[in-house]
Design brief:
Layout: H1 7-10, E1 16-22, H2 29-42, E2 47-52, H3 59-63, H4 71-75, E3 86-87, E4 93-95, H5 102-105, H6 109-122, E5 128-135, H7 139-147, E6 150-155, H8 159-174, E7 181-188, H9 191-209, E8 214-220, H10 223-231, H11 235-238, H12 243-256
Parallel strand pairs: 1-5, 1-6, 2-4, 2-5, 6-7, 7-8
Antiparallel strand pairs: 3-4
Helix pairs in contact: 2-12, 6-7, 8-9
C-alpha cells in the first residue's frame, strides 16, 4: 500500500466490512454481493468486493470479468496485494478468489489468516468491503464472517435453505459472534412470503440461540436477474429499471445507516 501518511489512518477511520453468506448454495448470494457492491459504488461509497469463496469463486462471472490475478496468486507469493485488485463494473474494485483451484479450497488456517490480514490492510483506503463468502459452516466460511462488522444472511423460502441459514447462524453465534446479522429473503413471490420466512428464522435464533436477527429486506423473483447472468453483467446494471433493482436499492438504503459518512482521503489503488 502507499507509503505516505494517510489522514484516514490518523483519524482512525476504516471501511465497514460486510460479509454476505448463506447456509446453502444456490440462493443467489453471489449475485446479491456483486449488485450490492455496484449500488454502493453508484452512491459514492468507494467499494471493494473480495470473493472469499475459496476454490469455487464465481463473482467475477456475475461481474463480467476475466481477472488476471487472484487471491491464489497472492497466497502463492506470485503477486502483491495491490496487483490482484482489478477494476470491476460501476468503479467497484474487485479481488477474485480463484476458481477451480484445489489448493485454495483446502487452504489451511495460516492461509486464511493471511487473507484476513490483507482485507484489514485495505480498510483505511475505502468505505465498503464486501466479502462474498462460500456457503456452509466450514472454517473457510466462518473465518471471514467473523472478520465482518455486519453479516448479510441470504436465504430463500425453500425449507432446506431456511434450515441451513439457521445452521450458519448457530455456528458463528456459538463461536462468539455478537455483531449484527441482517436477513435478506431472495426469490420470493410476495412480501408476505418473505416476512413468514424471516419470522421463522428469527423465532429460532431467539429461542435457541438468544440472538436477535435483523430484518434487512427481500428480493423478488425476477426474470431480469437470470437474464443478467446470461449477459454476464450485474442485474442492476443490465436492467436498472427492473423490480429487482428497485428492491436492491432499498437494501442498500437500509445498510447505509451503518456506514460512516466521513470519507478517507486516499484512493484504493489502480485508479
Amino acid at each position: 500500500m502507499a507509503e505516505q501518511t494517510n489522514p484516514a489512518e490518523k483519524a482512525g477511520k476504516r471501511a465497514t466490512i460486510l460479509a454476505v453468506t448463506s447456509g446453502k448454495g444456490g440462493v443467489g448470494k453471489t449475485s446479491l454481493s456483486v449488485n450490492l457492491a455496484c449500488e454502493f459504488s453508484r452512491r459514492g461509497h468507494r467499494t471493494v468486493i473480495v470473493d472469499t469463496d475459496l476454490g469455487l469463486a464465481n463473482a467475477h462471472i456475475i461481474a463480467g470479468m476475466k481477472p488476471k490475478q487472484t487471491l491464489s496468486d497472492y497466497i502463492d507469493g506470485k503477486a502483491e496485494l495491490t496487483e490482484i485488485i482489478e477494476d470491476g463494473p460501476c468503479k467497484v474494485k474487485f479481488i477474485s478468489g480463484g476458481s477451480g483451484v484445489k489448493e485454495m479450497a483446502n487452504l489451511d488456517d495460516n492461509g486464511r489468516a493471511r487473507i484476513c490480514v490483507a482485507i484489514e490492510e485495505l480498510t483505511p483506503f475505502c468505505d465498503i468491503i464486501l466479502l462474498d463468502t462460500g456457503a456452509g459452516v466450514s472454517r473457510g466460511v466462518t473465518d471471514f464472517v467473523t472478520l465482518a462488522d455486519h453479516t448479510i444472511l441470504v436465504t430463500t423460502s425453500n425449507f432446506a435453505s431456511i434450515a441451513d441459514a439457521y445452521g450458519i447462524v448457530k455456528v458463528i453465534v456459538q463461536d462468539g459472534y455478537d455483531k449484527p446479522i441482517h436477513c435478506v429473503v431472495n426469490r420470493v413471490r410476495s412480501p408476505e412470503e418473505a416476512e413468514q420466512v424471516f419470522l421463522k428464522l428469527k423465532s429460532c435464533t431467539e429461542r435457541f440461540l438468544g440472538f436477535d436477527l435483523n430484518w434487512l429486506g427481500l428480493l423478488p423473483e425476477d426474470s431480469s436477474v437470470e437474464g443478467a447472468v446470461l449477459k454476464r453483467a450485474p442485474f442492476s446494471e443490465a436492467f436498472p429499471g427492473s423490480v429487482a433493482a428497485r428492491y436492491l436499492a432499498k437494501l442498500v438504503s437500509g445498510l447505509e445507516r451503518y456506514i460512516g459518512t466521513a470519507k478517507p482521503a486516499s484512493q484504493v489503488v489502480k485508479n
